[in-house]
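Filed under: proteins

Residues; backbone shape codes:
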Amino acid sequence: MAGQGLYVATLLTGLLECLGFAGVVFGWASLVFVFKAEHYFEELCEPNAGLLGNATELVGRLGWMGDLFSLSDCKAQDEKFSLIFTLASSMNNFMTFPTGYIFDRFKTTVARLIAIFLYTSATLIIAFTSAGSAVLLFLAMPMLTVGGILFLITNLQIGNLFGKHRSTIITLYNGAFDSSSAVFLIIKLLYEQDISLRASFIFLSVCSTWHVARTFLLMPRGHIPYPLPPNYSYGLCSGNGPTKEKKTGELENRELQSQEFLSAQEEIPGPGQQQKPRSFWSHVFSRRFAWHLVWLSVIQLCHYLFIGTLNSLLTNLAGGDRVTVSTYTNAFAITQFFGVLCAPWNGLLMDRLKQKYLKEARKTGSSTSAVALRSAVPSLTLTSLLCLGFAICASVPVLPLQYVTFILQVISRSFLYGGNAAFLTLSFPSEHFGKLFGLVMALSAIVSLFQFPIFTLIKGPLRNDPFYVNVMLVIATLLTFVHPFLVYQECRTQTESPSAVA
């Protein structure tokens, strides 16, 4: 019973950690609002040329300078904020591979201590940054991102403690990662109640003592093995736990890299599977992997571009009305919080379909690998459809419609990452899962770097009119439907001809 209580405590505190710290960088729109109020990069703003000659007259008539700044062209300021988010969000994906290696090689305690160091350093830098030293955000935000990713990676293994509920817990943690973006909304609301930015980030820094305590009391020193051995203990109940962890160490190393989400060997057995093992690179250069990379990269770019430019978009649609921008920014951040509720539905959909198709396969003698893979097709299609709706709504310059955009965006994003991991487990051998997952995330991060030149294009040659960019994004999103179609065709081919190569 003591062990079960420890497992539940680990689960709940891990959920709280992901919800409060892991993915806060995606609340960037709320933080940009505060940074602008604190005049970060405001020295880059150039007053409109038409106003220069009348500046003295305006000040004389109005008696104050506030409106002069609201009438300024702050394209360079927006570009700085967009570049910071581009770097931070790209690091979120690109660093998945090296941080995963650190976790595999040096295990939980070392990985978490590195995460705590990076996270605490980042929050302290932001806390003591001012308008004069705003350039330090280029260092702090990527550090915050990498620290958060390590928190998530070290917590995903907690699903191993709960056997058959493993996938549900992992999906829930990914949803909590998405929902943590609401933390920056809380900071914004506190700022509007005269709680300084410095005080909020110092509080986040102090929370590191809680992370340290959890590392040593509620987490293992090594890895949590899967399947879980009898009487497994760690942390508070370890006793001779290190010995137990050492005994299961070999099993851990074998299981964790290949079974981060689901055991592919358990899920997709069957005579239709190719008997001769294929090399890692043969999977990398396969059509299936290439189209999955396109699917992930395009949808992710749409989301990152939207989040990174939201403040500028709302400012344009609201005609510079600060109160309206604040209201819509709050609404966006609130919808992000519901990612933790949306994420598990995608996993539930795939699990139900997989069980249904596997029962059919047993009756008909079809390839179980093909029918298991077929369960991913509705998830891939639905994610693309949600992103298409989100992209279309975002491209319509009607301010109230953005509420619908916010809802579609959070559902689409919560489906995206869970669907990505689940597809990889169903499509490729388990021994290559860790490497393929890290590689697809790293390559998609390179594509996400295009958000900054796109933003520069909108602000420069397109003169703040994103119409043509939005049209191109909608067309690119339509391209993502090719991926589920090809997967469906492959499944049909394998079902009709079990000897076909996947």
